[in-house]
Amino acid sequence: MEDTAKERAGTLLGSHAMVDAAVAVVTFAVGVAVMVNTGHLGASWVNGTPEPGYFPFRIGVVICLASATIFVRALLRARRSREVFVRLDRLRRVVAVLAPMLAYFVAIAYLGIYVASAIFVAGFMRVAGRYSVVKSVVVGVACSIALFWLFERQFLVPLPKGPLESWLGY
Fold first, then answer.
1. How far is it, in rounded angstroms, from Cα 159 to Cα 152?
2. What global pTM score does this model have?
3. What tens digit of pLDDT does each residue of 141-153 get?
4. Considering only Cβ atoms within 10 Å of each terminal Cβ, which end of the chain, N or C, has fewer?
């Protein structure tokens, strides 16, 4: 790939190796947390059987070992390569999907899953798919009705409801 000024300006700081190293540090911390939080359950073999924390503790050890390996490999690779992890133009596309998804999760708490899903589907169809407002709203509402019928009526699994469902008596 040609290293032009425009490409350098459109990059986000950080190489693949540095991002790998940062993720390895985070997963190592998760492994340590697993080991610490299962240690009080007992992580040994007693009277021919494992204690409740035996397997989770070992999973934490494996996570730490794998994370340490990835960290070392990332540092060794960082010396050889300065390949950029992500360009800003590509990061914008990720954020264009991630931001509405985060808003959807927040909306579930206030509007319930069915209303939030209808808005999410309709909004995504309208903005990303450039469908008409009518088609977007119809499909969004139809998806929510189908999900309500499937989960609430067929599977008898209650999902988070909001003010609309309360008003309708559900």
1. 7
2. 0.59
3. 999 999 999 999 9
4. N
